[in-house]
Amino acid sequence: MIDADKKKRADDRDSYRNNIFHFPSSVPTLSTTDSTPEVKPSIDVSESKIEELRNIKEANRMLKRKVTRREDSIERKVAAKTRKLEKITESTEQKLEKSEASLKQKTEILEKKRQKHSQDILSIRQLNNYVKILKKHIDGVNVMLEERSREHKVQEEEYGILQHKNKELEKSVEYLQGLINDTDEIIVCDPSINIYSNRLIECVMNLTNLKIATKNVGPVIQEVATLWGKRVNRLPSRQTVDNIVDRKVSMSQKQVSQITAKEKDTTLYTDETRKHGHTYQTYILTDKSQNSYLLGLREMVNKSAQCTLDVLKEILFDISAHCKELSEAKNFSVGYELLCNITNTMSDRASTEKAFNTLLQNYKEEVLPKVIDNYDELSVEENRTVGKLTISFADCTFFVGWLMYVRLE
Fold first, then answer.
1. What fold, for 261-404?
2. pLDDT tens track for 68-88
3. 111-159 confidence digits (pLDDT tens)
4. Distance CA 133, CA 140 (A)
5. H or E element: which one contains 395?
6. β-pairing, 189-190 with 266-275?
7. What is the Cα gyration radius of the chain?
């Protein structure tokens, strides 16, 4: 567009140059000196020529003015078109920059897609190799299954033979039991090794579960044997019965610890009662399914909160001692784990119980670093959540039911 305007302006200038302008060949001049004689105008120069010259001058002046205006107009148009062209050029450059940025972004996205595609291809190859390995492994497993099937058939045949032998042995046992029943003496203790039979130990445990006092277990066994016309070769003494009860308590504590140590968010119920001038404290644990476990019922020296906590520590220590193998496997006490899983407490509103809950909270925070790995790396919020202990108060009529099943001597 600019080249076309320049060409048009050049053509206009050439046309102006080619126009013929008429100028007079001579112009009379007036001398101002006195020595020069006055020259009169030539006879050939007439008024018409002078008028024509004036007209030509005026025409030239008007033409020059017109040319100037024309050039100014052309320059303004060229400037306007130039500005418009510059705006178009600037807009085009901006669009070009945006296009280049978009192209660059799309190029980067394409490069990422290519990299991801390469990674996907590599992953597919690895998966194909893994599938081949799995196929080989499945083939090996199938071979093992066939071998196991053959072994199972052999074992079934052997099991049938053993069942047949077992039936024969049962018949022999029934025959021998009949011979034993024919005798008047019940053998509950082997004199050669001085050990009571498992049947007697189970009988003692069942009698104590029925709230038979330990001193009365032997006489009860004797009375029952007399009722059937039998006699026991050796009755257990009170000390023996106490030892069996201790074994029963140890087994129950071990079982309780194995069950409750796995339970999270447990609730500890505590209550104290007096009987025959003695103070006893009860510790009961419940899980989310409302299953109750008796941790212990022990006599206390006094009713202080510190004594209540000390008795609980003794119970936890006994549980850890009964689960020594489990504690060694975990590298920390099972009793500590049981304590750390307690997140709620329930007791009456006695001042002793309130103080005990505070001591229990402090003791739990003291034990937590021994149970939880990297405890020091936990945030403040995580420490607060792990060590949180929700304290509730209620009428402890729940413990009355437990106390009805416990015989205190």
1. Nucleotidyltransferase; domain 5 (3.30.420)
2. 888 888 988 888 888 888 889
3. 989 888 888 888 898 888 889 898 888 988 898 888 888 888 898 889 9
4. 11
5. none
6. unpaired
7. 59
